[in-house]
Amino acid sequence: MRASIAFSLALALGVALPRAQPVPVKTLDIYVVDVEGGNATLFVAPSGESLLIDTGNSGVAAVRDADRIMAAARAAGLTRIDNLITTHWHGDHFGGLAELAARIPIRHFIDHGPNVQPAAAADEFLQKTYPQIHAKAVHTVAKPGARISVAGLDVLVVTSAGVTITEALPGAGGANRYCSSFTPGSNNAEDPMSVGTYVTFGRFRTIHLGDLTKNKEFELMCPSNRIGTVDVLLGLHHGVDTSNSEVLVHALRPRVAIMNNGTRKGGQPEVMKTLHSSPGLEDLWQMHFSQLSGQEYTVPGMFIANVPDEPLVAMAVAPIPAPPPGSAAPAAPAHDGTAYWIKVSARTDGSFTVTNARNGFSKQYVASSTRN
Ligand SMILES: [Zn+2]
Question: Taking the CB of residue 244, how many other CB atoms lie within 10 A of it?
Answer without folding.
Answer: 31
